[in-house]
Please model this.
Amino acid sequence: RANAATTGNYANAATTGNYANAATTGECANAATTGYRANAATTGYRANAATTGNYANAATTGNYANAATTGYRANAATTGECAVAASLGIHAKAKASATGGIVLAWRDQRGKLLGIRASMVGENNIQPDVWYTLNDAGEFVGSEE
Model:
């Protein structure tokens, strides 16, 4: 439960441990976490967020600010221009804004990788600011939450 927060250009935050969150604000101010429910959030131009762990979410706001997660039900969301949200775990979700993109790993219940699906928003029926997951056939499916 050890949290880290930074404010300022190039000011990074990193944590390791269950429920250990990281948050940054500023240009190129990145956040990274590792652990169960250890979330990362950033605001700023090129301010990326990355998480590893079950239910460990990553969220970014800012142009070119990417979000990436691995882990069971670990979701990624971006709201800036040209930002990519990548969720690589089982039952993961991703969403991006109008000029962004999403990447999802298609896995079976044991975690075996079956495929990778990626799309720009506006292609493959991917809408902006909508959560997407993959169904049992590896196809994009919109999600309510």
About this structure: The CA atoms of residues 46 and 65 lie 4 Å apart. The mean pLDDT is 93. The radius of gyration is 14 Å. The chain is about 0% helix and 45% strand.
